Each structure stands twice: as C-alpha cells, then as structure tokens.
TrEMBL record:
Pfam families: Abhydrolase_6. Keywords: Hydrolase. This is Alpha/beta hydrolase. It comes from the Bacteria. InterPro entries: AB_hydrolase_1, AB_hydrolase_fold, Epox_hydrolase-like. Gene3D superfamilies: alpha/beta hydrolase. GO terms for molecular function: hydrolase activity. Residues 34-277 form the AB hydrolase-1 domain. SUPFAM superfamilies: alpha/beta-Hydrolases.
C-alpha cells in the first residue's frame, strides 16, 4: 500500500532491499562517509539523527537509514531480532562502498559495535551516543519474554502501543527520558516522533524491544574491537546514566569518553552543535591513532 513519505530529514529517501523489504536510505554532503543509526524505541526513526545529518554535511558524506519497522522503511509482521538490524547495517555499509564512521544511538550502538567487529574493513571508527550492550539491554530474551511477545502481537499489543505513543504518551517519553531541557521538545520535535508511530505495523518492532528480543550483548565483542571509538554521553541521561560508560572504558583502551552537559539520552539531537564539534575533532585527530580515555566516571 502506498503511503505518504514521512518528512524525517531534509532530503527524500531512496530505498534498498533487505530480504524482500524496503529500507529507507538518506544521503547528503560529500567527503569521508559517515552512517547514522537511530536508537530503538516506540517511535524511533532517522528523525532523531537530524542534528548530525544536517550539521556534518559540510565536509562529510552523511548517510542515514531507517531500520526495518521504523520511519519510512517497511514494517512487516515478523519477529524482529537484533541480528536483523546488524545485517541491515552491514548491507548499508556494503552499498556505501568505502570505510565508514558509524554513529549510533543507545541500543543501536551495540549493533554498530557488532557490525564493526564483523566487517572491520568497512568500519574505520565509531561514535556512540549513550550506548548499551555492556550489561544493560544485553541479556537474551527467555521463554517467558517470548510468550509475552506472542501475546502482544495482536490487538492487545497494538492497544498498549497506541496508548504509549499517544500524543500525551509521546510527550511524556520525550520530556522524561529522551531530552533534558523541556524547551527542546518543540511541536516539530513532538510531531516527528508521534507521526512515525502512526504508520500501519508500527507496533511490531517496539514490542520486540519491550520483551527483550532486540537486546544485544557486546561484552565479549568490545574488548576485541580495533577501531577508535568515541562515546558521547548526555550528563543528565536517566535511562542510560553516564556511569554506564565505565564498563565501555574498562573494556577497550581505544574507547574514549566525552560528556555533554544539559543533555539526556538523545544527546545528538538535544545538543547538535556540541555533538557535531566533538565528532569532527575526534575524526580529525584520533581516527588513525589510539585515543586515551576521556573524562573519568565514578561508579
């Protein structure tokens, strides 16, 4: 069924195929390629990467995708798994055809780490915003969670999803978890998240997330990663607090940390100028060297 394209980024998407489904791909700018991977939540899409997408276009070839089940990509009825998203990142990297810097948010950072380890020739560096996978959102879903997922695939799950992603529910999520400054949540920001959750099939991927099917464990992978890696954390993040950075820093000496004040989980959209400046400095000065740890964090 044809649908109006969501206005998520300032360019229209093109599409590539993944296992018979369409994946939305956005591109702007010229230069060294970066690939933006949005987070996983009930109303996720490339919209939350608009700050890096627009701010890095001067000097970089910026690519972004909507993962399957989100944004302008297809939303088929299926049991979504972390491996699906890792593979979609791999296909996007292959299409770009040059070594890429991966910039990913939250749970998708674990997918990016896994992709970088799996295809090291395709990924030259990583920038991870409030990442998970080192003990948080890392345990595989058990039998009970899988039974709950099955019960949520139908009308009951859709009803719960519709309540969570109502205009009121979306506003609560944005102000309590995604952003620190309530003034950041403008009507345009609210609409960008709310409207993407209104598409047919929008609940299938999020209920997999809520029941743990999209969890991704990188505790054994991160220590082996060879690429320079920058963590950028919002100091006021609550869902993924900055003390979680300790595990990443301890696991691999190539990982460094920068913390942006007055920002929460979606730090790349709440403080885009500061975020983009850190990315540019990192890629200019450390992408070919082993960086030292950034700001220390006390557990």
């Amino acid at each position: 069924m044809n649908q109006t394209t969501l206005n998520l980024l300032p360019v229209a998407p093109t599409y590539f195929e993944w296992r018979g489904h369409r994946i939305a791909h956005y591109h702007t700018g010229e230069g060294e390629p970066v690939l933006l991977i949005h987070s996983i939540n009930a109303a996720a899409s490339a919209f939350e990467m608009r700050g890096p997408f627009t701010g890095l276009g001067d000097g970089f070839a910026v690519h972004a995708i909507d993962l399957l089940g989100y944004g302008n990509s297809d939303r088929p009825t299926r049991t979504y798994q972390a491996e699906d998203y890792i593979d979609q990142i791999g296909v996007a990297l292959e299409r770009i055809g040059q070594p890429v810097t991966l910039i990913a948010s939250s749970l998708s950072s674990a997918y990016a780490i896994t992709a970088a380890a799996r295809w090291p020739d395709r990924v030259k560096a990583l920038v991870l915003a409030c990442p998970t996978g080192m003990g948080q959102l890392s345990d595989p879903a058990g039998p009970i969670a899988r039974r709950i997922h099955q019960s949520l695939r139908g009308s009951a799950g859709r009803a719960i999803f519709d309540r969570l992603t109502s205009r009121k529910g979306t506003a609560y999520f944005l102000r309590s978890q995604a952003y620190h400054d309530p003034a950041t949540v403008t009507s345009a920001t609210h609409d960008g998240f709310y409207l993407t959750s209104r598409r047919p099939g929008a609940h299938y991927a999020p209920i997999c997330f809520l029941t743990g099917l999209l969890n991704c464990d990188v505790r054994a992978i991160l220590p082996t990663l060879r690429q320079p890696t920058l963590l950028i954390w919002g100091r006021q993040a609550t869902t993924t607090p900055v003390k979680r950075a300790d595990a990443f820093l301890a696991a691999n000496p190539r990982v460094r940390l920068e913390v942006i004040d007055q920002a929460s989980m979606l730090v790349q959209d709440e403080k885009p100028a500061e975020f983009n400046a850190l990315v540019r400095t990192f890629l200019a000065s450390t992408v070919h060297a082993m960086p030292s740890h950034g700001e220390p964090v006390l557990s």
